[in-house]
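User: Working on a comparison across species. This one is Tungstate transport system permease protein from Halomonas daqiaonensis. Can you predict its structure so I can line it up against the others?
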Amino acid sequence: MPDDANAFQTALALIMGGDPDLLGIVMLSLQVSLTAVLIAALIALPLGAALALWQFPGRGVAIVMLNAMMGLPPVVAGLAVYLLLSRAGPLGEFGLLFTPGAMVIAQVILVLPIIAALTRQQVEELHSEYREQLSSMGVSRSRRIPTLLWDARLGLTTVMLAGFGRASAEVGAVMIVGGNIDGVSRVMTTAIVLETSKGNLPLALGLGIVLLVLVALINAAAHLVGETAQRRLG
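Assistant: Here's the predicted structure for Tungstate transport system permease protein from Halomonas daqiaonensis:
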């Protein structure tokens, strides 16, 4: 018990003292996750809106597949990216394996279905409410996409926060494609696993505390955005 208490105190000291190793891992984690969410959002927001507005053969199947992808096992996504980026893979010539770029790709694959599926739901609800008004104004379906996305911006902010939460807490996929290389591809989740196995509890606890605070801030921001949206509708 005393050892655990000492480890916790040391972990707090590492955080408060701005330990370079800890800060480097945290900054790389934020950089990878934020980049992945931004790329995923640029693709998923218009994709989800398009699925909400257009009717086409196989639309139901596409929606079911998209919803199913929300539960994609991270290790499967990591394995798929590994095969793509390995030397024998189609993208092996770019040398991205075991780099932050590979980790971004893996997180994009995991986050994109979440943002796209939730965007489709929100845009579909808005479109059912404003369909007649938009039709009377002669607004084409392609022009409705930015209009409805902007109107749903508060709800979509919550969606993106959920995607960031998924990305920042990911361990399986980034471990496979990043390799957990010190100073290169070591992020909070993979570092916690490694440092715990090495017995370096202070650093593992310090990273765990930072990760918990980050998750709490994400949930608080999502709650605040949700409350703002409800007051606006009310």
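For your comparison, note: The chain has one domain: 2-233.

User: Helpful, thanks.
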